[in-house]
Amino acid sequence: MKRARKSEVVRAPSIAYRRMTRNTASAELVCDGIPLAQLVERYGTPLYVYSSEMIRARMKAFARAFRSIPHTLCYSVKANSTLAILQLVERVGAGFDVVSGGELERVGRMKKTAARNVVFSCVGKTVPEMELALKSGILLFNIESASELGALAATSARLRKIAPVAVRVNPDVSAKTHPYISTGLQKHKFGVPIPEARELYAEAARQPYLKVSGVSVHIGSQISDVSSFADALTRVVDLVRDLRRLGHDIRYVDAGGGLGISYEGTQADFQEQILAYANAVLRPLKDLDVHLLLEPGRSIVGAAGVLLTRVIYKKTNNSKRFLIVDAGMNDLLRPALYSAHHEIVAVQRSSSAIEVADVVGPVCETGDFFARGRELPATREGDLLAILDAGAYGSALGSNYNTRGRPAEVLVDGKQARVIRKREMFHDQVRLERL
Length: 435
Ligand SMILES: *Cc1c(COP(=O)(O)O)cnc(C)c1O
Known about the structure:
Blueprint: E1 7-11, E2 15-19, E3 27-31, E4 34-35, H1 36-43, E5 47-51, H2 52-65, E6 71-76, H3 83-91, E7 95-98, H4 101-110, E8 118-120, H5 127-136, E9 140-143, H6 146-159, E10 163-170, E11 192-193, H7 194-206, E12 210-216, H8 227-245, E13 252-254, H9 270-285, E14 291-294, H10 298-301, E15 305-317, E16 320-325, H11 334-338, E17 344-346, E18 348-349, E19 354-360, E20 369-377, E21 384-387, E22 408-413, E23 416-421, H12 426-430
Parallel strand pairs: 5-22, 6-7, 6-14, 7-8, 8-9, 9-10, 10-11, 10-12, 12-13, 13-14, 16-19
Antiparallel strand pairs: 1-2, 2-3, 3-4, 3-18, 5-15, 15-16, 15-21, 17-21, 19-20, 22-23
Helix pairs in contact: 2-9, 3-4, 4-5, 5-6, 8-9
The structure holds pyridoxal-5'-phosphate.
The site of pyridoxal-5'-phosphate has 18 residues, from helix 10.
């Protein structure tokens, strides 16, 4: 007879089912050994829980995959910008990719000197944001238009601070991902077409306070076909060689982020994925002699987070079954925004019975759903569900729509679990309002 497994991996290496007793089908979901139901008892629902171990493992897997080339991992702050998450990745050597002055302030709040390893991407950097970045001494400005280059030239000259610049090129390659998170085609607002980029480098070289130092590219997010990265990098490398021939000192190639995760798999193959990605990025860069910058977001934190929610009510409209949960689209927007799929599992499993249902939130929008017509473990009112792979673009995309407070966030680290963001209360929400 096959020996029953003691635990069943749900998201490697951290999220798993652990059998509760020897003789039954009952099992509980744990994060690095800590029962998630126990965290709910302490901190309530909805609740974000993240695994430090998983985040560190992914940072290390990246570093290992790219060890053949000088590189810096600039974690993309917008994927999950909670301060303790930034601190966790900084402690394993990360720099940061920011897309606003606010994100740069977060990095500075986490650690003053961390700005040294910040790259600043964004199509609409304002002058105050440029001033903040110049004063913070960031590593690289990724410039996305001639007008923006002009504004940075003027601002850096006024402050008498040298601005290290790269042009973010638009390589016109398809990322083969959701249209809302695809950024590298000619029709998108992002980046500068390569012929125009050449002119921007010439202009930058004429400006006394701009220092040409890199070329950047970022073609989108949740990309699973790594050949798109190879295509983009091949075009970038051609440009780097041309620019160097013209006398520009190109030290950095910023390959952006965008590596996808499997929202359906167990993530057991993430080492392999990262290796395939590294292969695609590194091959075009062979013999180029550059310092590589990478901006991974989702691939670091996505699978490391779950959103825990309680079933408030069950109802049946005609023949359609709904589970109404206490998390809503304001807590996790991805299904409403991108029709994104998230696996949903029971926090405490007692049988193998299945039912088909829609999992919906309490927000007054038909788009407020987490799953539609999904086969789920049979559930009773009061049961807890875990929405998986909610670590990236979950809390960061949250809002107060319907005057709902944002969930608390908990970080599990070894045997410890601690609150890294308290549950938002009503008074937090109305603090800035006046009657
Ligand atoms: C969003 C973004 C990233 C991170 O993308 P992921 O898909 O989360 O890895 C990196 N760089 C830039 C410029 C971005 O806008």
